[in-house]
Specification:
Blueprint (H helix, E strand, L loop, with lengths): L2 H25 L4 E2 H8 L3 H13 L3 E6 L9 E5 L5 E7 L3 E8 L4 E8 L6 H16 L7 E8 L3 E2 L4 E2 L13 H9 L3 E5 H6 L8 E6 L3 E7 L2 E3 L29 H10 L3 H19 L3 E5 L1 H4 L2 H15 L9 E4 L4 H15 L1
Parallel strand pairs: 4-7, 7-10, 11-14, 14-15
Antiparallel strand pairs: 1-3, 2-3, 4-5, 5-6, 8-9, 11-12, 12-13
Length: 352
């Protein structure tokens, strides 16, 4: 068999394994039979038999009783073994590192946090994150750990894991973040923008945005049911839309960016002004992309969630021409949305 043929077979097997694991995970504690798996995935009964035997042997699946009410030969139910593997997700916040460990079901099984200053050199911050990873994986079989997802402010190239001109992080320009963290941890590492990780942290509408206001402002996008990263994996620079040409100077060097307006209002003790400005920005986003759900996150926003949500609703009602035809759902994200989304990237190694 040629190398190319072997690689193609491996890719097909991995895709089929992932399809089966996704179907089993979707059924949760109720379990799913091999017959149901074949019907749901479109794979043949023979393929399902081989795949499930392999996944049972690897400890990813377990047999869990019989299908009630089934006619003919009793059908064995299969369930995921959540603690068979785990994944790690990190959020490189501008003043804090957050790290979570999740099982195959996405449940948080460990977490840690540490102060950080991303304005300085990258090395000490990455060393601290690597130490946190070692602490959360101590005592685990290395084979159990699928990998580490790292979410970071952009602009960055998620394909190569390289940072570019990140606002307020001059010493990180050109950093090969994926390579640096892989070298420090020995784990497969995936890098993503923090806001994109946030929008991937949960299922939702096919056209949705995750709007994050913390020490910066950005948005993650899902359009047509697929994450939207843009031509250079850098979509979602929501905070750098100009809303006031005479406004405050932004850390990016431009004047009147929405991020600068919101942060200036918060620092001046005017959260209502920040909320109104963000509402205008969200309405712009909804009208531009026909968004149907907005997930609200970030500590600055969640610390005054009622105020921000009310202001955003008011601006949507005022600025969307026909809100009854274009309703927008507002949902509050958990504070760990970004590291959870980052961990989901690593879970993708088995779920596709």
């Amino acid at each position: 068999m040629t190398t190319d043929s072997a690689l193609n077979l491996t890719l097909v097997r991995d895709r089929n394994d992932a399809a089966v694991l996704r179907a089993v995970r979707a059924r949760g504690e109720s379990g799913i039979s091999r017959v149901q798996l074949a019907a749901g995935t479109g794979l043949t009964a023979q393929a399902i038999s081989k795949i499930t035997a392999r996944l049972l042997g690897e400890g990813l699946l377990t047999e869990a009783g019989r299908l009630a009410g089934a006619t003919g030969k009793p059908r064995t139910l299969l369930r995921l073994v959540p603690d068979a593997r785990c994944a790690l997700g990190a959020h490189l916040g501008r003043s804090e590192l957050r790290l979570v460990r999740v099982d195959l079901g996405g449940a948080v099984t460990g977490r840690s946090a540490a102060p950080a200053d991303l304005r300085g050199e990258a090395g000490p911050v990455l060393d601290r994150l690597a130490a946190m990873v070692r602490e959360l994986t101590a005592g685990l079989d290395p084979a159990q750990v699928l990998g580490l997802g790292v979410a970071c402010p952009g602009p960055l190239d998620a394909r190569d894991g390289v940072l570019h001109e990140v606002t307020g992080m001059p010493h990180w320009r050109g950093l090969r973040l994926r390579e640096e963290m892989a070298a420090r941890t020995g784990l497969p590492v995936l890098v993503e923008k923090d806001t994109t990780a946030g929008v991937l942290s949960r299922l939702g509408a096919d056209h949705r945005a995750y709007v994050f206001l913390g020490e910066g402002l950005g948005a993650g996008l899902v359009l047509g049911g697929r994450v939207h990263r843009g031509a250079r994996t850098n979509a979602g620079e929501f905070g750098h839309q100009c809303v006031d040409r005479a406004g405050p100077v932004c850390a990016c060097g431009a004047r009147g960016c929405l991020e600068a307006v919101c942060l200036a209002a918060l620092r001046a003790g005017r959260p209502a002004d920040a909320a109104q400005a963000l509402g205008v920005g969200v309405a712009n986003l909804v009208r531009l992309l026909d968004i149907e759900e907005v997930l609200l996150g970030g500590d600055a926003l969640l610390d005054s969630a009622d105020l921000f949500e009310s202001a955003i609703r008011a601006e949507l009602a005022a600025r969307v021409p026909d809100p009854t035809w274009q309703p927008v759902t507002l949902t509050r994200a958990p504070r760990l949305a970004v590291p959870l989304g980052a961990a989901g990237l690593a879970l993708g190694r088995v779920f596709g």
